[in-house]
Amino acid sequence: MVYSDGSSGIVEDARWMVGANSTTYPIADLTRNVNRWFDKAVALILPAGGKWQFDDSNYTTYPNATAALVSGQQDYVLDVSYLRIERVEIKNEAGDWTRLKQLDRTEVDMSISEFMEQDGDPIYYDLQGNSVLLYPAPDYSQASSLRVFFQRKGSYFETTDTTKSPGFAELFHRYLSLGAAYDYSLKYKTSNKQDIELEILRMEKDIQNFYSRRNRDYQPRMTPKFKTSR
């Protein structure tokens, strides 16, 4: 479903459900609400996806970013638009990439300020706010040698969008128009508010079921643990 094609897009569908028009439901308000429900859709999809890593298909880049390492610098600021960090890698001076281990500060039995204070090849990373902290700090400077993999929010709609579609399964594009219609019905107390809400709840279950089964090649297995009787 496209965003707005003048007849059957998300914008038109949302207005149709509540008997609104461009005057009673301005495009700025509608777009704000659609993007808010887009966030909700992503929040449903991410935990349901399992090993299939969801990313909005409207993006033209992969969900990872690189930064230059600076000798002696421990703190590297991230773009706050990410939702979850999946892994952090470092490239050493020989040009080889290695994965860093995430630091659990509760297991460090000394002052964190004294932990690995001698610069060297980073082994661990810690996340604080919107920063990645490296332990130890690198003892070399090198371009494009810190790589962070992440999951990001959906590609939001602009009020001027027309043919752009949501970057998730087309079966559930109407979730956004239902959500925007619900926000309108909540404010103006339309007679079909409850019907819209029930349809949203049904679709949320369908979204979770769909994405939880999408990666059919991966089947979780139970591995028995054996304990000796001696």
Q: How are the SSEs placed, and which strands pair?
A:
Layout (H helix, E strand, L loop, with lengths): L9 H9 L8 H22 L15 E6 L5 E3 L4 E10 L5 E3 L1 E2 L21 E5 L2 E5 L6 E11 L21 H15 L4 H20 L18
Parallel strand pairs: 5-6
Antiparallel strand pairs: 1-8, 2-7, 3-4, 3-8, 6-7
Please, could you describe this protein's structure?
The chain is α+β, with helices and mostly antiparallel strands and 230 residues long. It has two domains: 10-57 and 154-212, no CATH class; 64-152, no CATH class. It contains four helices and eight strands. It has helices spanning 10-18, 27-48, 174-188, 193-212, and strands spanning 64-69, 75-77, 82-91, 97-99, 101-102, 124-128, 131-135, 142-152. The strands form two sheets. Strands 1-8-3-4 form a four-stranded antiparallel β-sheet, with no helix packed on it. The chain has a four-stranded mixed β-sheet with strand order 2-7-6-5, with no helix packed on it. Helix 1 runs parallel beside helix 3 and helix 3 runs antiparallel to helix 4. The longest helix is centred in the N-terminal third of the chain and has 22 residues, at 27-48. The radius of gyration is 23 Å and the shape is elongated. It starts with 9 loop residues before the first helix and ends in an 18-residue tail after the last helix. Mean pLDDT is 87; it is low at 216-230.
